[in-house]
Protein 1
Amino acid sequence: MIDKILNKEKLNFSDIEFLLNLTDELEINKLLQRAYEIKEKYIGKKAYYRGLIEISNICDKNCYYCGIRKGANIKRYTIVEEEILEMAKWAYKNNYASITLQAGEITGASYTKKIANIIRKIKELSNGELGITLSLGEQSYETYKEWFLAGAHRYLLRIETSDKDLYKTLHPNDDLHSFDNRIKCLKSLKDVGYQVGTGVMVGLPNQTVKNLVNDILFFEKHDIDMLGMGPYVVANDTPTAKYVLENGLNGQKEINERFILALKFIATCRLYLKDVNIAASTAMEALAPKGRERALLSGANILMPVLTKQEYKKNYQLYDNKTTLFDETKEFIDPFKDKVEEIGEKVGFGEWGDSPHFNNRKK
Ligand code: 5AD
Ligand code: SF4
């Protein structure tokens, strides 16, 4: 059964469901290996870096699962432009080729201008060479356009879950947290011309395997270029965490299951979508040692080393994640090179590593 499904050109709903439901270790390994083969075929034995700069932890939203939500009692910071440019220059000098600017969600005319200026300056300091991905939440079509014209070319906006009812259980019920607006934003990003990334959290409370199958079909329907996915991780003092802990859903057994489900999910996305970029997210590392390498071996091809300095990073805890509470860039200029080579791959230094799916869809 499993071999037949793994060799199918196009999986259907029940095939995907079957793969996500696998429990036998040997069968799971078959799935992960097959996904790696597909990645090798479409992308090669290469992993690309996106240096992650978390420019501010100020957020107007109150997503129930997130550690930097508006209601969270944390120290807020915004990195000044000069220092952001310094980090971008560091990434450029070290041949990273691409960076990602991420922040909590804020909107407004002066914010739009400020970010556009930063994008332009990063382009200038790198002779136009540094690729810029943005992860700055829901904005208007005009703002997306202004940032695109300033030089950003990829945008990440996770749908978190494609199930509208589940989405509602994870967010306050108001206009600021509208599922429909998020879909509208994904469409705007595409219309503006970005390579568009989305993704979901895996193992959310009350999420079913059928929900996850629908997530994968959602990625297909929206012709997504890039995926960033990881397991749900408990974030201290948040409503979702409270629910999870009260219902005994965060024991070691549940954590391991969530991690394996995330690996199966990444692999199945690779199997089904084939030519998209898939990130081995930091959340993978939060639940299991070598989580990111294991994601690379299951079909992911993007790594996002955190360039944010330690003094800020400690206040950018979307979830409880002690393992990455060190400055990856301080210890090694190249935090993952050894790890990537250990599994027989190379880092695509100096290359943008655009999503082949994007190039194919432009043809
Ligand atoms: N666990 C896992 N991922 C989380 N994110 C936010 N909170 C959590 C959490 N507790 C993810 C969301 C968001 C991204 C920036 O971080 O998917 O889109
Ligand atoms: Fe803000 Fe994003 Fe966290 Fe929601 S997930 S509270 S938008 S930083």
Protein 2
Amino acid sequence: MPIQVLPDHLIAKIAAGEVVERPASVVKELLENALDAGAGYIQVDIQQGGRRLIRVSDDGSGINQQEAPLAVTRHATSKLSAADDLTRILTLGFRGEALASIAAVSLLTLSTRHRDEDVGTEIRVAGGELMHQKAVGAPAGTVISVENLFYNTPARLKFLKAEATEKRQIATLISRYAMAYPQVRFVLTQDNREQFRSPGSGRLADVVVRVMGVEAFERMIDVYNEEPLPTTGEAIRVTGYASLPEFTRNDRTRIVLFINGRAVQDHSLVHAVTQAYHGLIDRSRYPYAVLMLDVPPDFVDVNVHPTKAEVRFQDANVIFAALQRAVRTALVLALEQSGYPPHERVHDPATRPRPAQGWQRPYESDASDASDTPYQDAPFQTEMGLTFDETSPRSTAEAPAANAPNDAPESAPAQRPRTLPVLRVVGQVGAAYIVAEGPAGMYLIDQHAAHWRLLYNAYQEALNADHLPLIEAETRPVDLSPEAARTLEAALEPLQAMGFTLEPFGPASFRLRTLPEFLSGHDAADILRGLVEALSADDPQEAITQHVSQRAALTAGEILSNEDMRALVQQLERAPNPLQGPDGRPTLIHMSAEQIAHQFSR
Ligand code: ADP
Ligand code: MG
């Protein structure tokens, strides 16, 4: 056969194969046109899974009489003018080929009236041939009916899935667009039965409830995150809902993503969402999620594939990271809220620390300071970009009550205010450090310093509250130097107030009768020598508190179980002064996600 230019109707049919794969792809194109036309109401009527009829009616702008024939002509569009517009596409359509393609493989009727015109137009196209155009009376808006889809492409017809499958595809599609456009009322009927209706309230939550049911929705959390693009500083925003780790399924099909209002199928973005659940759900499970990404239009290239379901990004990593971070942050916050009762907000003056009894000035005044400052770490929280109070911008305005933060039962006991974000223990390194992950990056925790901080706080608090658990110690007498004995002798009373009951046993010998519970199992001689040393410090109470809590603390070299590490980290999260040991050295090193990325030159 000689080379020849194909006739138009064949070109159209070939092109149609790319755009119009199945009934659902027709529905998608018609929906996008209605949305581009600014519709507030879109009704979709389907017969026989779309084979017999697909009809989409909208109350959008409509098309004026002269332009109507152009609408069904290939490469005719009202949405693009110059080629450079392709870099900033704000409409769903732009290729100007959907209607022409659909018309090439069906019997298409377009009935439309432009809002500024009195008379409407009806156009009929069969297999790409314009059959007629006539003036009609019609409400403002557009109705497009597609009958006998693929009647003239038998191969395509053969490949159509079972009617039930097509019906399901269409229903899924409508529900997705309803979620992406919560301000638009969608109605879907299949074979004359209403199958779906969205309220058009503008609230995503309302649509998600319609699509997934209230029970499912209650097991989802809201995701909200906005961050600047590293390059231009324009915002990338991620909003929507994601399921709690307890609510999963065995495939990825319920991870629904939209970019700038366009439903996209992108493996790497779906992966970003599942990655956010790493360590929280089994590898074989997948979450439910409905997430909207809003990025600057020139950051994404939607002109990759005729169906526009695939997109490319200027920098896919940035999007990936933003999405993953948004979901992860929401999850970590939600887990915190479900795991803990509401935070104690008011520092009750009745529980103000009192100095331990038995010490005289000048020690007294100093003793109360350190533990009376549960909020002194606030700047640290801000530095990490997270403050854990109810006003934090985690929820969109339309966040439903079910997701409201801090609605744990009122009967729950008061908790300390949180001084660190929720951390997830990853593991232990060098038998000395705990690696943990938080919403703001990685934490390396010195197990000795952290445990020392906790014991120190606990000891000090117990003393202040006059509620120190003691144990009876039947220790053997400890021989000391005469000088050490004199030092102890002079401090018997205050030492007793700190939990150490000493019984003189001969001239320079003491027996320890009671000691603080947390020191159980420690060597009495060691303890007494430590007390003697501490008693010579400027502030003996502080010195003793520091000394004995350090003694009892975990040391480097101890291998910890996951349980132990978690317990330690959880306590540290609510400890006053969690960042420093009692001697002022750090308990943890924090590396933000940005710092880590920077280290990897990303
Ligand atoms: P595209 O959407 O890529 O521009 P289409 O073939 O889908 O191409 O539509 C061609 C043109 O027809 C659109 O640019 C628009 O002007 C007009 N059009 C199609 N559907 C509608 C509708 N529902 N309401 C108003 N105008 C429409
Ligand atoms: Mg279109």
Protein 3
Amino acid sequence: MTICVAIIGSGPAGYYTAEALVKSLGDDVCIDIIDRLPTPYGLIRAGVAPDHQSIKGVYRRYEKTNLLTNVRFVGNIDVGDAVTIEELRDLYDAVVLAVGAPNDRPLGVPGHDLDGVIGSAAFVGWYNAHPDFEALDPNLNIETAAVIGNGNVAVDVARVLAKTPEEMENSDLARHAAEIIHNSTLKHIYMFGRRGPLEAKFTPKELGELGVLTNCVTVVNPDHLPKDVGEVDPVVRKNLAHLEGFSKNEAGSKPVTLHIEFYAKPLEVLGENHVSSLKMERTRVEDGACISTGEYFEIDCGLVVPCIGYRTLPIPGVPYDNDGGRFKNENGLIDSGLYCTGWARRGPSGTIGTNRPDAFEVAEHIATQISDNDKPGRSGLDALIKERDLWAVTFRDWKRIEEAETIAAEGDAPRVKFANRGQLLDALK
Ligand code: NAP
């Protein structure tokens, strides 16, 4: 007997699920990992910061899974458009949605849809050469940018905006983004947190990187740092040590100043068609909650990047938890034979590794709940692909794209990412 599984999405959640299924079912499972892009690895390629190459190195583990005979990458197939979920459920014994959370949570204040307000999903996608965002073309001929949020994505965005070309030399920053970022006139970057240093979600390693930038000095208002914290979580203690250091820095001592500004929540984005300033409210924190104070201030800025979390894209017919921005599920089970894992299951939290136990749990459910139903699986999908004249990108094709990107790289850069579908597919011609 062979259980046929379709995993939709080839990011960490998808690959850990495939790995777990093979571990649990061995040769009794046949897996297709389907992705709408011609490239695998999801957030590893398009989310992890371009200067964090060591984190991106985890793809080598997924590559081993790709090389198993019962696992296949099927790229360039848009589930929902080229093939529907219903069709896949008819073809496979189990379908796993590992589609991540590619949409920005809206900032939800007046003016949040003005030009120049660009959510982190789009902004990070743009500098990481995600084909959906090649044309974003943000205007960085401005003096001030505001990054909203105190998580690691906000830290990534602030750092990538602040780094010099030399500091990005061994990154895979998209060429179109390097052109704009490295010619920008930015002098000030604000990173606003609506709560305080004790509640911030960033982690010490990432925060520490903001203290060693060549052209950018990071500052924080010493009055915003707690005086006597007593016993705190080691992560918070290390964050506080970095922040103490930043509080001694002098704004303006380098060409760019990154202001980490706590206790400030956005109230309104102002501007005619394009953002020109941001109205903020001073807050205080009580029992961990953000409380309004009625005290306001404004900063002029030409770009606002809300880094405040993501949402999974709803799929017609699949139950959706609108508040959580993810699929409704019970420990990964959505409906008979339909599962979800990763951010699509639990929301946008945790590190890459957090997806592993998540995926192993879903694989365990599949191994115990699903039996071989004589469904065609792989051959059924191939028939649909042929019938609809779709161009499915194989793992071998991907390796050719990867090779072309590597050959095109100059200096210490690991690769030059092709930034649109045409360029990616041209590499196969
Ligand atoms: P996150 O860690 O949840 O941070 C979101 C931030 O946005 C929080 O500071 C939150 O404040 C703030 N926020 C939410 N709604 C807001 C609003 N309406 N107005 C103002 N601020 C608001 O999310 P993330 O930074 O997007 O990261 C997602 C996940 O990826 C996290 O688990 C993160 O650690 C991970 N990640 C890891 C790395 C790395 O390890 N290098 C890099 C990038 C991302 P409150 O706390 O007050 O809600």
